[in-house]
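Think of the structure tokens as a kind of shorthand, similar to the way a musician reads notation: each symbol stands for something richer, in this case the local conformation of the backbone. In the example below we present two proteins back to back. Begin with the first one, reading the sequence and then the tokens, and try to describe in your own words what changes along the chain.
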Amino acid sequence: MMRKAFAKSSALVLGYLDRIVCVLGAVSFAQAPEFFQQYYQRLGGHLDEARRTLAQFEVAARAAGKPFGRFVTDTLANPDPGLAKLGQTMHDTAERVAQLQAAHQALGEASPWSRPWIFLGHLDSSIARATLEVFQPAVPTTLEGALYAALGLAVAFSLWYFLIRLPLEAWGERRAARNRNNLR
């Protein structure tokens, strides 16, 4: 009698744990589209600022009567270390604009299925860290959010079931069998 009551309460607890794990997985994965959106906005801000800086360098090049590329090359070759460093900064800024622009365009055009891979392929860890620091969770009410939630539910339940629940149940069955054998 006691064993049956314990088995019933164990099944009830496991059922609740199943549900909790599924909800946590769904809610966690559903945050991905929101994180991507907030990262994309922050990426756009970095791109705008880098473009603004690059535009200032281009104005200086025009004022010197040179195309930007030539202006950078001449500044890099300057014997004054400060001016040479400025040339490197202009070069790095132009490269940064190109990188940010490529990432922004790729993420903006990505489908829900390809977005995680595009995100990882163009990941800027400093922007991702800054996004995470101010990340505001949300419940996306889009098809993409529902798909991520379903995926999260499946992943969380699979991990829970195959890595924790089944081994615990097998251990419990082996223990119960040993106890029955010891009672005989």
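Once you have a description of the first chain, move to the second and do the same.
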Amino acid sequence: MKITEQRTFSQADFDAFADLSGDNNPIHVDHEFAAESRFGRTVSHGVLLCSVIRGMIERHLPGSRQLAHTVMYPAPTFADEAMLFEIDIERASDSEHQCAFQVKRVADETVTCEGQCRVQS
């Protein structure tokens, strides 16, 4: 089963996630600092992206528990850019599913987050 969702995060979303998580790394919340970085502007917390992925899985496999997770961030996710979240869910056994996921920019299809997880239902 393939599930997709499009999301556009704002700087306010990055700031709210920083407040909630306590991760106030300036690359996520400080425009002046981020402007001097190799990215040139603030970038999303990786865990914010993974939280959206986990929520999507939960909506399709209610009550599932995540058993394992691997993730890479090959490019940054910026505020105010439409992002496409894609997850392929395959049954691995009677009670487990393997989920491969990818987050990419809608505008140019650059992958900003990819990985896989195993969940038990």
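Compare your description with these statements about the second chain. The chain is about 30% helix and 35% strand.
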